[in-house]
Amino acid sequence: MRTALILLFLFALASLPGALLPQWNLDRGKTAQFIIDHPRWGRLLDATGFFSVFGSPWYAAIYLLLFTSLVGCLVPRSVELTRQLRRPPVVTPRNLVRMPHFFAFTTSATPDDSAAKATAVLGRRWRIRRDVEADGAVTISAERGYLREVGNVVFHLSLLGLLVAVAVGKLVGYEGSIIVDTQSGFCSVGPVSYDNFRPGILVDGTQMSPFCVNVENFRSAYTAQGQASEFAATIRYQSGSDVGTGRWSSRVLQVNDPLRISGQRLYLLGHGFTPHFRVKYPSGAVRDYAQPFQPMDSTLVSQGAVKITDPPDWNGTSLLTHQLALVGVFAPTQRVSGGVMTSVFPAARDPGVAVQVYRGDLGLEIGRPQSVFAIDSAQVASGLLVKVKQGNLSPGQTLTLDDGTVITFTGYNEWVSLQTSYDPGQLGALISAIALLVGLTVSLTIKRRRVWFRFRATADATGEARTDVEVGGLARTDAAGYGEEFSRLVRLTV
């Protein structure tokens, strides 16, 4: 048991880095940025698995050792509990006066009548054993509180079940997240359908149940202080045999109120804004661009980048020197101070965008991964990507570049972040957690008690038959509070 407690402490301690440090499977962008910001510690932590804690060998080793220790602890305890439940209470000790609780008195009733009265007082809540000693004295041995050990075993079995449920979820469960603009949708057919997909160890994506979702609109409400009071997305969805047909079901999706569909759960995680730009090139060609921006704070100030890799006026090698990037900050309710745009409220009451226009080689052809919300800073540092214009724009306003390109901020729409989650161990984890709490409560509240009675027939000075009664009590686990209960038993049997 001591080993199990030590391993449980180590298990909790080993889980802390998974909560405090960015994880590759949760947010690759933040994890990569952490390593860039802390190159020495970042590379060391990455090499030792601290950015993928729950899949690291050392975490799995603690997990398996804890599992093994719990099994090794539970097997002998369960066997011993079974023996105790089948075994009658122990024989009444010879010297009850040595017990922590003792009382003696004399009654006119016979030993059999006194024993019958004591048995009736004890009732069904005590396990009772009645014996007759060699000198004819009648004894009663009673014990209660066996459920304490039952609760203890249930607690540890539930902990074991919880570990198994979590392991099952990590093996065959998965999570996928995607950003979906309003008035658009997506179909879940495999990992490729998602922006980020976190599969279980045994998941290859071929067994996923397909479904389709269309986001019709999104509404949000805020208090006067800017605190969110409601996020809700109205969606239509198809699943099962309805996929690919004209049959749709409707649902209002809210935070912490997932849609259960095809054995999976679809969550609404958050929302943000997608600025829209219209670019008129020197040749007269006009193209529209839009890109979701990433919220940065509670006022939903968002940053992002629109990367234009194929401007129509250029081709071949010259294309790589005339790509455009619109790097900006979107403010739902703008306020400009000293040329810097911020937002004073999360709702889009007065939208604006602060945009910086870069021209040159975006670096997408060299194979180095980039965030969709930012440009490659190495391209800027090397001079391959140069800032040519910047400005603060409201809807309808424009920026004109030195070559005659006109960039217009045409407006915005909102997007929602959806997450698909499949965890077959979730129900088992819930049941185990409930049983764990019940077992813990039982083991902490119920106490083991023992009480013994000895009834010996005697006679007083006049020769009248009497019965000497000895009562002894022992609390096996905790003596606190047994004195009052023992005194009550004695009063009822006198």
From TrEMBL:
Residues 1-486 form the ResB-like domain. The chain crosses the membrane at residues 58-79, 153-174, 427-446. GO terms for biological process: cytochrome complex assembly. Keywords: Cytochrome c-type biogenesis, Membrane, Transmembrane, Transmembrane helix. It is a multi-pass membrane protein. One of its GO terms (cellular component) is membrane. It is found in: Membrane. Its main location: membrane. This is Cytochrome c biogenesis protein. The lineage of its organism: Bacteria, Bacillati, Actinomycetota, Actinomycetes, Nakamurellales. The gene is resB.
